[in-house]
Amino acid sequence: MSDYKRIYTKLNSILNAFSDDTDDIAELQERVDKLIDIYINELNNYKVKIEENTLILQAQFEEISRTYEELTTVLDISKMVFSVKDPRLAIENVVSRLKDVINFRNIVVGEFILIDDYHDFNLLYSEFLDADLNILPLLNIMNRTKPIKTILKERDEINDYPDSMLLVPIKSQIKIWGFLLLYGKKDRSIFLASDKKILESVAEQLAFGFDTMNYLKERIKQQKMDEQLKLAKEIQESLLPKTLPTFEKIQLSTFYRSAFDVGGDYYDALKLSETKLFAILADVSGKGVPAALIMSSLKGVVRSKVENAADLGEVVNYINNFLCRSLPSDRFVTAIFVLVDSESKTIQIINAGHNESPFFIDGKFYSSKAGGLPLGIVEDNTYSAENFSYTDDLVFFTYTDGLTEARNPKNEEYGWERLQSLMQLIKIDNTDVIVNSIIDSVDAFVENAEQHDDTTLLAIKSF
After folding, report:
1. Within 10 Å of residue 136's Cβ, how many Cβ atoms?
2. Which residues pair with 178 in a beta bridge?
3. What phi and psi, each to the nearest 5 degrees, are found at residue 78?
4. From edge to edge, which strands make up the β-sheet containing 386-389?
5. Can the peptide bond before residue 147 be classed as cis, meaning omega within 30 degrees of 0?
6. pTM for the whole thing?
7. Which pLDDT value is given to residue 137?
8. What is the pLDDT at residue 375?
9. Which of 400, 377, 267 is nearest to 327 (CA)?
10. Residues 39, 45: Cα–Cα separation, whole Å
11. Is 438 left (phi over 0), alpha (psi -120 to 50) or beta?
12. Higher-confidence residue: 286 or 188?
């Protein structure tokens, strides 16, 4: 009796199945049996719950493990891509690491050649277990899904195979660089959304790699261009005369200002005698170092020929033939040559395809138009000088395109008409004032608009 009572009291205190008490031995036995059944049933239910929770925890652990593996895979692939300058060099290692998380049988990695035509691509990597390049007609799908996007299919509808396929573009905000194509899984199952997510992450890393490579190439290209522009500026400025010759009855002033892009402006002035001035202003086609090197050749041949020549036409004809033999077929030089003699009070002008240049003889307006071909185009072309005489004074002015083609914020050009009107007003001043007045006028017109060509001026006055 006492043992049953004690067992009953212990079990009921745990299970709380009965609210009253009893001393009847038969009823105690019945109650103890019932309490034991309840206890065993709860133990069984608890065991089932433990098993269920164990399965849930196991699934969660497997999911966490897979997620961890996916994250480490993407991280490893990111390191592979950015450990090389060119992501193409990392493709093989990327594919090898990708096998650890996706059990694909066949893979193709391609790089598009023409973004506007997705048919053309370079094959960066391919590996086939039981397929070949015949799976590439799958890429035709992309032409029906512009802009290209991820494609996940349970079977290959193009080739009528039961194999699953997964195609992901290597795409950034800049452009679509290429694609990753997985074809068939080793266990013959289908590719899942988780596989798609991993492959998209890998494609994103590759796209970053291509973007970085493209950025570095552009920076290197820009750096080389900046170095070329710097060298061209140095060459160009070294070719311009440091000082100008002086005369008793001839004034000479020049102005040169380079733009951001180095052009081919060149000028020179030589004192042939106490009364004779030779001047040239030229514009070489093209920009950068090539134009600067042509200027260097032009300066050399001008200086070697002009001092011993008897006629200005002879000088220009010689220079033209030299440039025809020296210049590439797509290069030429426009130039204006001037020979002023204050003793005979004469001026000779040859305009070889250069800008129309205003001049005044005893106050009367004239202009020298581009009567001849630019230099370096036709060999043995004959250039003849325009000859003028003056009694009281001569004012001659010439320039390069950077002056008349200077644009204001409204995209209007300064133009020949403005220059001609201004020259009429300032022709009586000395050459320094003439040059400064023109530059001030152009700068006021341009305001803060950016200029893309050099500006060079040359003014001569004789009396």
Report:
1. 18
2. 111, 170
3. -60, -45
4. 265-271, 276-284, 333-341, 346-352, 386-389
5. yes
6. 0.59
7. 61
8. 93
9. 377
10. 10
11. alpha
12. 188
